[in-house]
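Could you join me in thinking about how sequence relates to backbone shape in a protein? We need material for that, and I hope you will provide a protein of your own picking. Once you have written the record down, we can walk along the chain together:

…
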Amino acid sequence: MSDSDDDVPTLSAHTLAALQEFYNEARTAEAHSTTPSDQFAVGAVEEDWRMSQFWYSDETATKLAEEVVREAGEGGRIACVSAPSVYQKLKQGVVDGSDRVSSVVLEYDRRFAAYGDDFLFYDYNEPLSFAASVAPQSFDIVLADPPYLSEECLSKVAETIKYLSKGKVLLCTGAIMEDLAKNLLDAKMCDFLPKHNKNLSNEFRCFVNYPSRLLSC
C-alpha cells in the first residue's frame, strides 16, 4: 500500500459543511437536554472544601426544604444563607408547596450566580452588605448554615439573619455552638439530626427559635 497523500480520502466542501451542521445541532441538543431538576440537583455544583462546603444528604435537604416551606406559608419568602442544598431542593419542584413560595440563595461561591436573580453574593465578614433591593425583615424565614464553627462566624451570620428575617430562624451548625445560638438568636436545639453526603467529624444539629416539628422528631 502506498503512503502517498494522494491515497488519503478527502471530503467535499458540501460534505464538510453538512458534517459541521450535524455537530452543531448535536451540541445544541446536549445543551438543552439539562432539565430544571438536573440544574438544581444537590451536588450539581461540586463541594469545595476550601470554602468549607459540605452538602446535605438528599433526605436532609428535603426535610429542611419541607420545613421552610411550611413555615414561610403561602406566598412566603425564604432566604437560604450559605445553604445551597436546601435552595436547590426547593427549586426541584419535588417538595409540596415549593411552587407557592419564593427563595434566594446567599453564597460567597460565585458559581451559584448561574441561578440568576435568585443568587445574592454573600460574605459573612460583611454581614450587612446587601444591595438596596434587599429590604430588612423581608423574609418569612431564614435558614442559615454558617461556613465555620467559630464564635466570630456565627456572630456575624446572626447579624445577617436578624436583618433579613421577619422573625423565624432555622440555624444549622455544630452542636458545640448551642449556647451561642441560644444567646444570639434564642434558638433551641432540635431532635432532628441533619446528615451530609460526606460524614463530618463534628456533631451537626439544627436550631430553631419558633415551635417546629423538628424539635421532636
